[in-house]
Amino acid sequence: MKVKVFTATNMQEAMAQVKNGLGRDAVILHTRRFRKGGFLGFFGKEMVEVMAALDSPAAPPISEKKPQQVILPRPNEEDNKVTALQLEFASMRRLMEQVLAKLPRQENQKSPLYELLIKNDIDPDIAANLIQGLPEDSAFIGGDPATVRKLLAERMTNYLQRVEGIVLPETGCKVVSFIGPTGVGKTTTIAKFAAHFAITHGHKVALVTADTYRISAVEQLKTYADIIGVPIEIVYSPDEMKAALYRHRDKRLVLVDTAGRSPRNQFQLAELQALLAVDPYIETHLVLSATTKYTDALEAVNRFAVCSPQKFLFTKLDEASNLGTLFNLLYQFPTTLSYVTTGQNVPDDIELANPGKLANLILED
Ligand SMILES: Nc1nc2c(ncn2[C@@H]2O[C@H](COP(=O)(O)OP(=O)(O)OP(=O)(O)O)[C@@H](O)[C@H]2O)c(=O)[nH]1
Ligand SMILES: [Mg+2]
After folding, report:
1. In CATH, what class is 174-354?
2. For an engineered disulfide with 117, which of 97, 125, 127, 325 has Cβ 3.0 to 4.6 Å away?
3. 62-67 — which CB contacts under 8 Å span 24+ positions?
4. How far is the CA of 25 from the centre of ligand 2 (A)?
């Protein structure tokens, strides 16, 4: 690994030096502000120091630590957040379903609807529960199998019922942050929102990025901000975050981008938690890709619970072969669903989640 220290009169200049010196894949290790010259640190010129590193290609991969104990969220969170109670409730429900599913129910295995749910990666225990009590004999309800399927779709819709997008208050500023594993589409989704609220609806919007881990990440959002014509702030610490939010208190909407975090890195998650704790009114959306395996997504939800997200946002529905992960998670965690994204195009490929439409997609052959 190549490590270098850069000094400049401001952060932009320092970042330009990092980019020139180490390239776009450089990783920022440390930043500090200090005064140069003057007397006892007074009257000196303010300078910025950035320590950055570049992984040499030959370096062996850094192995992830083994998953440690789950950090539960602060006990006094509001009801609609993924709280410790919700996590406990979800694991109790899961246990109960496992017990129920073990009871002899031969008909499950024969039911074509059960098979369809399994084919669409619905968790077997959840699938068994969903079809329980549905009329087995379609002749019983007029000889129409489509009616049984409709009943099942309605049942599934109930689990997806809690939907709310980004709702701006009558007056004042709304701050929405986006957290989630790496590469799920947080930054692209923020660009979609920025264009939607600023260009389509003419609201005053600002972007704040705390993703200073990679030079290219800052540039990615900056490019969108320039195209859309909204201001962008780059923050390196909770204090800077607080100051940036204060500076943009005249905006209707401030969108906060964060660095993609491995759900297994507790240190990174604690950093993220500290950043979002500067303002209790920040609405946090946990961004998850619909292409993620259910068990991995479940782990991400458990780990990111430390940041108390209020809403789930699912990306990459266009790439997912089915929506099993999305449904399984919302079945386990009765959390509000906000948007789904369906492609890479900014600003078009995003929509408010539609429970009925999603239930029917889940039941597609
Ligand atoms: N197919 C598809 N691709 C998407 C969607 N949303 C984002 N992407 C793509 O996913 C890739 C990663 O997107 P980013 O927005 O950079 O993801 P991120 O979560 O900000 O990534 P990190 O900041 O590295 O954690 C890009 O190639 C996006 O174009 C989507 O809905 N569908
Ligand atoms: Mg990003």
Report:
1. alpha beta
2. 127
3. 64/262, 64/264, 64/265, 65/264, 65/265, 67/264, 67/299
4. 14
